[in-house]
Write a structure and sequence with these properties.
about 160 residues, mainly alpha, single chain, 4 helices, disordered N terminus
Length: about 160
C-alpha cells in the first residue's frame, strides 16, 4: 500500500494529494466521442477543468460541424436565388444553421473557460482574445499548455 502523494500512477480523489484526475470536469483525458458528448452535457458549466484532449477533440468536431453547416447554409441560400424572398425552406434552414452555430460557439466558449481553469487561470482570460492578433496567440498558447497537476481552485 502506498502513501497518498507518492504513487503518481494512482488516481486522485478530491481532498487527496494524488495527481491523476478521475472525472471529466477534473480534467481527465478523453477520446473523441467522449469529448464531444461531455462537452455538450456540460455545455454551460464554466466551473471545473477541461484537459487538452477534451478541448482539442471538441475543437476538431466544432470545425467539422462549422464547415458542414457552412456548406448546408450556402446550398440553402443559393437555392433561394431568383425566387421571391421568403419562399421555400431556405430561410428556415438559415435560421436553424444560425442557431446551431450560436449553440456550438457558446459550448466552445465554456469549454475554453474550463481549459483555462486547467492551466490554473481565471476564465476571464478569455477576454484577451479581443486584443487583435496578440490575444488569439496568447489564448492558443494557454490552450496548448499542460494542465496543473492535482487539485486547483477551479475544481467542481
Amino acid at each position: 500500500m502506498s502513501v497518498p502523494g507518492t504513487n503518481f500512477s494512482d488516481r486522485w480523489l478530491p481532498g487527496s494529494f494524488l495527481l491523476t484526475p478521475i472525472t471529466y470536469l477534473q480534467g481527465a483525458p478523453v477520446g473523441f466521442g467522449q469529448a464531444v458528448k461531455m462537452a455538450f452535457r456540460h455545455g454551460f458549466a464554466c466551473r471545473g477543468r477541461a484537459s487538452r484532449s477534451a478541448y482539442w477533440w471538441f475543437a476538431l468536431f466544432q470545425w467539422a460541424i462549422i464547415v458542414a453547416l457552412w456548406i448546408v447554409g450556402s446550398i440553402a441560400l443559393a437555392g433561394s436565388n431568383g425566387t421571391s424572398a421568403g419562399s421555400g425552406p431556405s430561410p428556415a434552414i438559415a435560421i436553424i444553421v444560425g442557431i446551431s452555430l450560436l449553440y456550438l460557439t457558446l459550448v466552445g466558449v465554456t469549454l475554453q473557460v474550463r481549459r483555462l481553469h486547467d492551466t490554473d487561470r481565471s476564465g476571464w482570460w478569455i477576454l484577451i482574445g479581443l486584443v487583435p492578433y496578440v490575444g488569439a496567440i496568447v489564448l492558443l498558447i494557454f490552450t496548448l499548455l499542460k494542465g496543473t497537476p492535482g487539485p486547483n481552485i477551479y475544481e467542481p
